[in-house]
């Protein structure tokens, strides 16, 4: 909750990266700084390793499989993502096609394909990390104010610029 004014300039620069990252460990000093940032907002940030990481990856994979078989997921995805220019049936503040990143060809990193079954022109496929590094944000409770705390912790923690591999069409 403190020092938010210093984060204001980052608003225009901040974005999600949907490209493969390098296969190198996040330095402990960076992990500690990210965890401290989450604590400022009343949340906890943890980096799962070993069996815990694989358990999380399996849960994500199961959720994606359920999403694919859900009859309404295609319509929901189409409402908040854009393949073309905004229209009456899409949100103009959703995820634009240029932010989808490449399709996942290989790797263990959990990557949702925002195109779904739709074709997004110009996308290529890429191999993602075999040993992804994930950070989990949590709160003590599951109430609306806790959801807000978790979102604020993510916002504060995302000021660290990630290193990503250079995307190359294939």
Structure, described:
The protein has 170 residues and is an alpha/beta fold. Helices cover 35% and strands 10% of the residues. The protein has 5 helices and 6 strands. It has helices at residues 4-7, 28-40, 50-69, 73-80, 144-157; strands spanning 44-46, 81-82, 95-96, 103-106, 125-127, 136-138. The protein has a two-stranded antiparallel sheet with strand order 1-6. The radius of gyration is 17 Å and the shape is globular. The termini are far apart. The relative contact order is 0.22. Residues 161-170 have low confidence and may be disordered.
Biggest sheet architecture: 2 strands, antiparallel
Tell me the quaternary state: single chain
Strand content: 5-15%
Q: What is the number of helical segments per DSSP (H or I, 4+ residues)? A: 5
Shape: globular
The tally of strands reads: 6
Report the helical percentage: 25-40%
Could you name the key traits of this structure?
single chain, 170 residues, alpha/beta
In short:
The protein has 170 residues and is α/β, with parallel strands linked by helices. 35% of the residues lie in helices and 10% in strands.
Layout of strands and helices, then pairs:
Layout: H1 4-7, H2 28-40, E1 44-46, H3 50-69, H4 73-80, E2 81-82, E3 95-96, E4 103-106, E5 125-127, E6 136-138, H5 144-157
Parallel strand pairs: 2-3, 4-5
Antiparallel strand pairs: 1-6
Helix pairs in contact: 2-5
């Amino acid at each position: 909750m403190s020092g938010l004014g210093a984060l204001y300039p980052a608003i225009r620069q901040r974005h999600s990266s949907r490209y493969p990252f390098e296969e190198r460990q996040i330095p402990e000093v960076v992990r500690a700084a990210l965890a401290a940032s989450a604590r400022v907002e009343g949340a906890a940030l943890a980096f799962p390793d070993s069996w815990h990481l694989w358990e999380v990856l399996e849960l994500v994979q199961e959720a994606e499989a359920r999403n694919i078989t859900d009859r309404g997921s295609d319509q929901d995805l189409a409402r908040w993502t854009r393949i073309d220019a905004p229209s009456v049936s899409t949100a103009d503040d959703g995820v634009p096609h240029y932010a989808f990143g490449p399709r996942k060809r290989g790797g263990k990193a959990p990557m949702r394909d925002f195109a779904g079954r739709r074709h997004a022109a110009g996308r290529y496929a890429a191999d993602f990390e075999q040993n992804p590094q994930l950070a989990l944000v949590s709160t003590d409770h599951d109430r609306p104010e806790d959801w807000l705390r978790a979102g604020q912790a993510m916002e504060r923690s995302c000021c660290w610029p990630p290193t990503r591999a250079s995307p190359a069409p294939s």
